[in-house]
Design brief:
alpha/beta; Rossmann fold
Length: about 200
């Protein structure tokens, strides 16, 4: 990406979004655009199109998603599938329509079948049942990956997806009810150490 390119980082307050912004800053990119969910509701197509019309980003890095652990997925399945489908559909389609040069879509390893052979390969996607505890999120992420592939095939839009593995780090969610396993275990160890 060119140093002066306008780069929109969706989901800049999340774990991956924060890391992307830190890395872009470290590489001396000076035209990074961000919006909080209060400033821009990515589930609202008209709002997303207005934002793109005003900002005209050159690149889009989509780390925005409704995320959570097993407990949150169990409680809010409709939010996980519908909300994520809306966000990624609005971003991918609008980025294409506004001539974005390249888009990065952040997938998830939960898209892999529950009993996928190890080590996992991309070819295993959609070859078996998903893990039931996060299937709503997984289905939405699979749709986003396929949408990137479809827009690339039909329109030549440079949309790519990556599937990070178990993420944890600076800015993570350590809440027992909504976090993933790694940060919950880190919190548990930290609290045990403090209790000693």
């Amino acid at each position: 990406m060119e140093q002066d390119a306008k780069i929109y980082v969706a989901g800049h307050r999340g774990l991956v979004g924060q890391a992307l912004v830190r890395q872009l800053n470290a590489q001396h990119h000076t035209n990074i655009v961000t919006r909080t969910s209060a400033e821009l509701d990515l589930t609202e197509q008209a709002a997303v199109r207005e934002f793109f019309a005003a900002e005209q980003p050159d690149y889009v890095l989509n780390a925005a998603a409704i995320v959570g652990g097993i407990f949150a997925n169990e409680l809010y399945p409709a939010d996980f599938i519908a909300g994520n489908l809306q966000v990624q559909t609005n971003l991918i389609d609008t980025a294409y329509r506004f001539g974005v040069k390249k888009m990065l879509f952040l997938g998830s390893t939960c898209i892999m079948p529950r009993d996928a052979p190890q080590p996992m390969k991309e070819d295993y996607i959609l070859t078996g049942p998903l893990e039931e505890t996060n299937q709503w999120y997984a289905v939405a992420k699979i749709a986003g990956i396929k949408m990137c592939q479809a827009y690339r095939r039909q329109y030549g839009f440079d949309a790519i997806s990556v599937q990070p593995t178990n993420l944890f780090g600076i800015g993570d969610n350590f809440d027992y009810e909504t976090s993933h396993m790694a940060p919950a275990m880190i919190r548990r160890m930290h609290e045990a150490k403090l209790a000693d």
